[in-house]
Design a protein that fits this description.
The protein has 1 helix and 19 strands. With 276 residues, the chain is an all-beta fold. Among the domains are: 152 residues, SH3 type barrels; 35 residues, Ribosomal protein L2, domain 3 (Irregular), CATH 4.10.950.10. The chain has a 7-stranded antiparallel beta sheet, with no helix packed on it. A 4-stranded antiparallel beta sheet has the order 9-8-7-10, with no helix packed on it. The chain is globular.
């Protein structure tokens, strides 16, 4: 982490993460153009305060890592504008190149391997949950065997195996949730890279605009006709029993998961509320 000197108002209290130095040119076959969503689906705004931002090329990430029992060498660790974690360029012995999520502490030159059998549980190796010792940090976890990693993919996150019960492994997620996952699902050893990401001080509004995040206005600063929190004199409170969205629906801490979702039977303990 690099902290700027307060030479200007925007530099004061701002920081950046030192990016990994790129030693090789980017692989063009693993890049493709991407269309900006701008918070819209079928032309309608589904996520507010999104739009603009810098142009980005999408990096094709191998979440399956299904080249089994073929050694791969980490050729480079790179920045990816589409995610919070670093990515690693892996060159396999047969010459194929793929991007994967870079595990924490992995270095250029390290050798990694994916297998359906038991292998050494070191950073970057990938194998079924049933062969991973309990207590080891894991990431990029599959929900269904062979479908690719879906869980624990953002910067600094890691899950761990608590126990094996029948055909399931009990996993403790970064949120505190405990759930059952088929023990034949694959997972990668280690935490996700870029642990310092949550500590970035953005410093000025312009840096958020570069990321495609537009300004948001507090509801309590609006008029009553524009938001349920609006109205009042000066710094008025919300004035309601519970906060609401601009359209009158309950907000902040409301459960949005369907009560009869079929995967509820796999959740042993729901995630705990984080203290603010």
């Amino acid at each position: 982490m690099k902290y700027y000197k307060p030479t200007t108002s925007s530099r004061r209290k701002s920081s950046v993460i030192q990016l990994p130095k790129s030693k090789t040119k980017k692989v063009k076959s693993l890049l493709k153009g991407s269309i900006k969503k701008k918070g819209r689906s079928k032309g309608k705004i589904t996520v507010r305060h999104r739009g603009g931002g810098e142009k980005r090329l999408y990096r094709k990430i191998d979440f399956k890592q299904d080249k089994f029992d073929i050694l791969g060498k980490v050729a480079n660790i790179e920045y990816d504008p589409n995610r919070t974690a670093w990515i690693a360029l892996v060159v396999y012995r047969d010459g194929e190149k793929r991007y994967i999520l870079a595990p924490h502490k992995i270095k250029v030159g390290a050798q990694i391997r994916s297998s359906l059998d038991s292998i050494e549980p070191k950073e970057g190796n990938r194998m079924p949950l049933k062969y991973i010792p309990s207590g080891y940090p894991i990431h990029n976890i599959e929900l269904e065997p062979g479908k690719g990693g879906k869980l624990v993919r953002s910067a600094g996150n890691a899950a761990s195996i608590l126990s094996l019960e029948g055909k399931f492994a009990v996993i403790k997620m970064p949120s505190g949730e405990k759930r059952k996952i088929d023990k034949n699902c694959l997972a990668s050893i280690g935490a996700v890279s870029n642990l310092e990401w949550k500590g970035i001080r953005w410093g000025k509004a312009g840096r958020s605009r570069h990321r495609g995040i537009r300004p948001s206005v507090r509801g309590k600063a609006m008029n009553p006709c524009d938001h349920p929190h609006g109205g009042g004199e000066g710094h008025s409170p919300v004035g309601l029993k519970h906060p609401k969205t601009p359209w009158g629906k309950p907000a902040v801490g409301v459960k949005t998961r369907k009560k009869k979702k079929w995967t509820n039977k796999y959740i042993i303990k729901r995630r705990s509320k984080k203290k603010r």
